[in-house]
């Protein structure tokens, strides 16, 4: 019985991590990050940047979530300070990232909880999580 439950759990987790992810009503592009050091963890968007991002979104309320949840103090405990991120970069590279929008030379990615259940508990977002990276380190998977 335990083996069946374990097999079912593995199947459900695999299925959740391999199904397409949708954001803003569109299939999101899975991306990889080539340098975690090119992250903006406390970035404040300018009015012009907000306008540029808003033009790319179908759901305008998504911008409010991006503004709030791109701040490190809303991220999981294992990554919500610079010291934590410096100590845990290798583990962070295992996140599944999805491109949301780009502005200037920066790209916003989503780190959805449902696509990151394979991560240690302290890394799994409990709500929305967005990260702004330099666009030069965001590559297609």
Shape: globular
Rg, Å, rounded: 16 Å
Please give the number of β-strands: 8
Number of domains: 1
Strand content: 15-25%
Kindly state the percentage of residues in helix.
25-40%
Query: Which sheet architecture does the biggest sheet show?
Result: 6 strands, antiparallel
Oligomeric description of these chains: single chain
Average pLDDT figure: 89
Low-confidence parts: 5-17
Major sheet strand order: 4-7-6-5-3-8
Secondary structure class reads alpha+beta
Number of helices: 5
Signal peptide: 1-18
Keywords: Signal
InterPro entries: NRDP1 (IPR015036), NRDP1_C (IPR037255)
Organism: Lacibacter sediminis
Brief characterization of the structure:
With 141 residues, the protein is α+β, with helices and mostly antiparallel strands.
Characterise the protein shown here:
With 141 residues, this protein is an alpha+beta fold. The protein has one domain. The protein has helices at residues 2-18, 47-56, 62-69, 82-87, 89-92, and strands at 22-23, 26-27, 29-33, 39-40, 97-103, 106-110, 130-134, 138-140. The strands form 2 sheets. The protein has a 6-stranded antiparallel β-sheet with strand order 4-7-6-5-3-8, with helices on one face. Strand 5 (97-103) and strand 6 (106-110) form a beta hairpin. The longest helix has 17 residues, at 2-18. It starts with a helix and ends with a strand.
């Amino acid at each position: 019985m335990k083996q069946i439950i374990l097999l079912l759990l593995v199947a459900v987790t695999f299925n959740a991590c391999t199904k397409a992810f949708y954001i803003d009503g569109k299939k999101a592009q899975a991306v990889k990050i080539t340098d975690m050091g090119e992250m903006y963890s406390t970035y404040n968007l300018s009015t012009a940047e907000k306008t540029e991002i808003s033009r790319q979104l179908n759901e305008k309320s998504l911008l409010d979530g991006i503004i709030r949840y791109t701040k490190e103090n809303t991220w999981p405990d294992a990554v919500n300070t610079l010291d934590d991120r410096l100590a845990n970069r290798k583990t962070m590279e295992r996140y599944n990232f999805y491109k949301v929008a780009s502005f200037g030379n920066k790209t916003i990615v989503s780190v959805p909880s449902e696509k990151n259940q394979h991560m240690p508990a302290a890394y799994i977002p409990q709500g929305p999580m967005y990260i702004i990276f330099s666009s030069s380190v965001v590559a297609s998977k």
